[in-house]
Amino acid sequence: MEVVNLQITKQTSYSFDKFIELRNELNDFDNPFLKQIIQKYAEDEWETLEARLNHFSQKLSTKWRKWTDDIARPENHPKLLHYDAFNHRIDRIVQPLEARMLTEEVKRERLFSSALLPYEGITKRYLLHGNGESGITCPLACTDGLIALIEEFIDEVPNEVRKMYLHAKEGIDGDFAIGAQFMSEIQGGSNIPANVLRAVPEKNYYRLYGNKFFCSAVHADYSVVTARLEGTNDIALFVVPTWLPGDKEKEKRNGHVVNRLKWKIGTTELPSGEIDYNGAVAYLIGPKNRGVALAVSIVLTRSRLDIGFASASFIMRAAREAKLYARFRQVFDRKIDEFPMAAAQLEDLEEAAKRMVATAFKIYDAFLKYDPLVETAESFATRELILLQKIFSSKEAVNQLRTAISIFGGHGAIEDFSSIPRLFRDSIVNELWEGPSNVLLAQIYRDLHKLRSKFSIKTFLNIILPHLSQAAIDKYAGEIEQIMVIDLTAMPTWENCLAARKWEQVWREIFIHYQQLAVSELQDLPILDPAVLVQTSK
Ligand SMILES: Cc1cc2nc3c(=O)[nH]c(=O)nc-3n(C[C@H](O)[C@H](O)[C@H](O)COP(=O)(O)OP(=O)(O)OC[C@H]3O[C@@H](n4cnc5c(N)ncnc54)[C@H](O)[C@@H]3O)c2cc1C
Known about the structure:
The N and C termini lie far apart (50 Å). By secondary structure, the protein is an alpha+beta fold. Helices cover 52% and strands 13% of the residues. It has a five-stranded mixed beta barrel with strand order 4-5-9-7-6. Strands 1-2 form a two-stranded antiparallel sheet. It has a two-stranded antiparallel sheet with strand order 10-11. The protein has three domains: 18-152, no CATH class; 177-290, Butyryl-CoA Dehydrogenase, subunit A, domain 2 (Beta Barrel), CATH 2.40.110; 293-520, Butyryl-CoA Dehydrogenase, subunit A, domain 3, CATH 1.20.140. The structure holds flavin-adenine dinucleotide. Flavin-adenine dinucleotide binds at residues 181-184, 188-190, 214-216, 264, 267, 272, 429, 432-436, 438-439, 442.
């Protein structure tokens, strides 16, 4: 009888191993362009900071990156367990072991502690963004806002809130708290003044009743919540513990239930819930009638800055990996980066990465110098730059990541081939949360109308674009003034729709000028060690 040989021979010996090996060895801090930026702002502290960042980035680019890729798999997405076996409502957020280990290791970095060097916390958070783990980075941004908010009123808040502050900033017995911020309600997230969640006074605290419809980091220890004071038109700001003292271990939530976790296009590792409050203890913070102003100026400002860093870090990582792949992969008769069309796209990607990273740090520096709560021309300019960055960097991130994906061809669409598809999906969320573009463009329109009673538009433009000629400043000021004559808040007409398009266009141009200024202050250093590229092509 004839024996049929069933052994299947491999059709191809093609291997990605060389690329994977080199890519996995990339250390995100091993980036001459990035290092010079951090050195510029760290000044005398640079040497100590560099050593600390080397150590941090080594973990981040190896162990933590591997965990992050595992956490991102669909079967590991967070889940909600409503009840325990004894009929207790617990609303436990179930996360994979890697997510819990990563959270604990990152918490131990004490990223908000006063023991850190200036720029250490923010630079580490910039680097963390490159991994694309919103289950870590979103609560960190919220913790930043929570700490800043309590700090502003530290002399007035009750001891319970001071303890929360200490817990988030310095840790208590080695345990570090994380924050969240719940402002959006079902009837309109952009319109915080329309909140209907009720706050009813009781002793030295309030009790909350109602619903919050977008609650990211629903596993956090404390949240900043906006609510309407019962019987008034005032929207106030509260700090709400997720568990009252002693209840975390019992999994007994503070007067609220989590109805469900949202199924999202991006930031899928981050549990975003819908909450019903039924008497949660909440501590008022700041004046009763200033909740919206405080939420925007202290809390959302920090989250928006964070989105600038996230967008920049995403594009920097994608640009480096796309460059490496294009040097490695042979198609037809040559490497991908030897086709003029791909070479031009890679150049644009690298240029965008440099612009976005340089800008994120420059705006952050201005934020540290010019207190956004003070009414000077520089503070005003910084506030508007933070809005412009949130609008245009998050949008550009989506576009640039699409280009990066295309450099990888079909493999660019494969979630476990690279992290770029995840960064792309997360960037779409970055465009939406903390204020979608139209809301922020409308905010700039309102701000500039108010500004004109104090400073001229030319003064503002001269502050942000000192490198442009007076003719260019006059041109932009003229265009802005012309649009501002038209009511962009009225019902749509042919005329105001046209003006609305021009409004976005003129600010995009102005913001690119600002980004170019940020880059021009630096040397044109590479984003990847050139030796790595040589090795890749061998
Ligand atoms: C994944 C994810 C997680 C989130 N997590 C949180 C969270 O933890 N906490 C939280 O508070 N929120 C959270 N949000 C909510 C987010 O902040 C809101 O979705 C956002 O503020 C917009 O609100 P909305 O969805 O109700 O849109 P709407 O307010 O209904 O807006 C819809 C559209 O109308 C436009 N628009 C609205 N008002 C104006 C205006 N005045 N001028 C011009 N255009 C306007 C908007 O630009 C947008 O295009 C999250 C959102 C997402 C996607």
